[in-house]
Amino acid sequence: MKIIGVAASPRKNKSTNFLLEQCLDEANKTAQESGIHLDTELVDLAGMKINGCISCDACRKGLLCSQQDDFQSLIGTFADPEVVGIIMATPVYMGSMTSQAKAFIDRSVLYRRNGFMFRDKLGGVLTVGGSRNGGQELTIQAVHAAMMIHGMIVVGDGEHFGGTAWGNHPGGHEGDATGIATARKLGKRITEVASKFQS
Ligand SMILES: Cc1cc2nc3c(=O)[nH]c(=O)nc-3n(C[C@H](O)[C@H](O)[C@H](O)COP(=O)(O)O)c2cc1C
To answer: I want to staple 40 with a disulfide (CB 3.0 to 4.6 A). Which of 10, 24, 113, 162 is the partner?
Structure first.
């Protein structure tokens, strides 16, 4: 089984990427400790050109999209039946997800229109804000809503909504021990739930 993490910051190798790596690392560690076979992959949207959906309805005719941009290269990645979970990681922009995250999510409608391909996959969310309380949980809920539109099963960090991190922590994002702990707990929890589904 496989879990894919999507980093939806426009910036490469910044706080969102770091927190998602922490999350996936804990997912792998949990799988190893439980003797579960798990593959993880980090898909970084930074540097990719993914337009918003233009509602052309091409995807009603099959698993295809009329827009020739970088989303084309991702269609097969997420269609893999081995994928049991998707973790979306996004910075908080103006109290919600980035436009990169929203464009990716809107374009993912093609999986819904071709047999609800994300139905029963696990969905987790990790957010990073410049402020400690800058809308992390609200943003998580916005992404959760899209996951439910897909028929996915939403998973939190086992206690709260998911990963909530502070990019401008005085010690830098690497110094945000609380945020890192929530990201790692999300990775652990999604792996634990995935293993229950497997058995
Ligand atoms: C356009 C814009 C809007 C932002 N809005 C918020 C916000 O509403 N709340 C918040 O806490 N941080 C906000 N931030 C800060 C980012 O969430 C923060 O810098 C985050 O760490 C960026 O992630 P990255 O380091 O992976 O790029 C905003 C940043 C930008 C550029």
So the answer is: 24
